[in-house]
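Worked example (supplementary).
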Amino acid sequence: MSKNNGNSLLSGLSDAMADAVETAGTATVLVNARRRFPASGIAYDSDLILTASHVIEREDDIPVLLPDGSKKSAKLIGRDPGSDLAVIRLGSSVAELAESAEGEARVGQLVLALGRPTPDGIQASLGVVSAIGGPVYTRHGGLLEHHIRTDAIPYPGFSGGPLVDSSGRVLGMNTSGLTRGASLAIPVGLAWKIAESLAKHGSVRRGYLGIRSQPVEIPSSHQDTLGRQQETGLLLVSVEKGSPAEKGGLMVGDILTGFAGQPISESDELFARLAGEVVGQPVKVEVLRGGHLQEDTVTIGERK
Amino acid sequence: MILGIDSSESIAKELTDVFQQVQRSLVVIQNGRGGAGVFWRTGGIVVTNNHVIHRGHPRISTLDERQYPTQIIARAKEIDLAILKVDSIEFGDSNLGVASIADSHQLRVGQIVLAIGHPWGQIGAISAGIISSLGCAQMRDRRGTLKVIRTDARLAPGNSGGPLINASGGVIGINTMVVGGDLGVAIPSHVVNDFVEKTLGQENLRVAM
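After joint prediction of all chains, the assembly is encoded as:
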């Protein structure tokens, strides 16, 4: 490269971007688990690789190419098609692990999408965070609490690779397998949480309450009772016999307004709260019953 | 890295400066398929893509809208490069000049790049991106592969033959099209340099074809 113009900020930014690619590239691996189109993965914990569930078409002897050129064979540990995440195990630790970004992605922030779909070296594209999206229902009936949209080009084989900030720290995992025709990134906090569950249980445990509900408006007088501005809640239209909800004291006619200290105004939000590590845990459920605020403790069951 | 508002403004200004500097060496290939080219060396040596020129004496125009006839002194179909010579041009105190050529051996994925050309006929347009990958592409004659720079900067027909430049304004490659219509690809400047050296090194500068 030609000598930089000394104090050039543009050259500095250029070098910083290349450094970011280099840093994050040391933890971006090639995962070859489907015919013809290899994809990418993120080395995140000793011998564990996080990748996209939709690129995994075999469970054993998955060829993985590490950034140093060494070839490994991995085994599927767990997958969650709902969030398009899968964890595979190499059997021996890797030297470089991905580092997560502090704080969440911000709209407008410069980001790099990375992938290693070929043995020719790391690939990257530059963009910005276009939007932080709210809950989305995914193709396999899953629900993502939130997701990152970016205008960085998702090249073929980028699924499973990291979306990183300008220091090379991971903001999310890229995938084009969740929503048709669009690529998005699963925020790193959520991805690690699901990965932990996958590594431990082989699947994501989803909580079970045993209720059916529909969203209803909360009258303003009852909003005063809540002590916050919340316009909707979930009216319980049935409570299954012997279910965690019944055991916890929830009744038909209750308006569910909060779960584990978080306001719930739509069923999406409740679904999101029921994912992950709440199974088997006692959780405080806030309801409006006859205009009075009440809190019941429900021990969350597991949806089979 | 942390950048303040001042830095962002300075970066924007630097981008403009780099663009203006490189524009001096940019040409339009007139009676071909509307490609771009770049003054690679003194003596009126212009490098462009082979696929944007026809036979004969392609005319070029510079950014001050003057037109010049050229001679084709070499063309290499397999790497899609051609060298033209403008006999009558004197840069003098004009705004024109020879591009500064950067070494393309030390490129890194992630580096900021700018592509300058005439996409869809828009003269002297710029697009920005990064180096997306450093790999190989199939040659146009399908006889082998060639080291190329891939970029996520948007390229369109009309960028062909134009320069891909780095953050300090050095030319790191010539934008081109390879088999399969893969647009975001550039031939590294060291490959171009080798071709220019080989051609101009020949004592007998015969006009090709």
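Two points are worth noting when inspecting this output. The mean pLDDT of chain A is 91. Helices of chain A lie at 9-25, 188-201, 220-226, 244-247, 267-273.
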